[in-house]
Amino acid sequence: MIGTVSDGDIRRGLLRGLALDSSISTIVHQNALVAPLEMGRNTVLQLMAANDIQQVPVVDDQQQLIGLHLWNEVATTPERFTRKKHDAGFPHHAIRYCLKEAGIPASQIDNVVFYEKPFVKFERLLETYLAFAPKGFKSFAQAIPL
């Protein structure tokens, strides 16, 4: 494998003034992170999360490309089960799936943590309240902590 190039790399290159007919070698990551074939799912997830990446190439012992792990195929998100983009509901389907995959009964779980990205939540709230403006202003003012 020579390296990797993402759509983000291309976009950043274009924003830096890179011409469309420029050589790909100017933006390729030659020391890209890769996952060996035998790397387990949890380790792949940790690698992706630690490096804030959405995909990682899978290579064999000779560093030959044999596949690609994609975050949305490796990770479990509520959208995967509900088919609702930015589903605001409690992710009980995702939790049930993770417990089943890990072979852990629910009785062994003491706490569940749910994280929502604040800017995504704010954008969702804003879009909802704007759709019902001006009627939604009172509830919008109550939902936004000042």
Description:
This protein has 4 domains: 1-32, no CATH class; 34-75, CBS-domain (Roll); 76-113, no CATH class; 116-146. Helices cover 42% and strands 9% of the residues. The chain has 7 helices and 3 strands; from the N terminus they run αβαββααααα. Strands 1-2-3 form a 3-stranded mixed beta sheet. Helix 6 (118-131) packs antiparallel against helix 7 (137-143). The radius of gyration is 21 Å and the shape is flat.
So what's the oligomer here? Answer: single chain
Q: What is the H/E order?
A: HEHEEHHHHH
Helix vs. strand class: mainly alpha
- Return Rg in Å: 21 Å
Q: Report strand %.
A: 5-15%
- Please give the domain count: 4
Q: Which outline best applies?
A: flat
What is the count of DSSP helices, taking H or I runs of 4+ residues?
A: 7
What is the CATH topology of the largest domain? CBS-domain
CATH class of the largest domain, please?
Answer: Alpha Beta
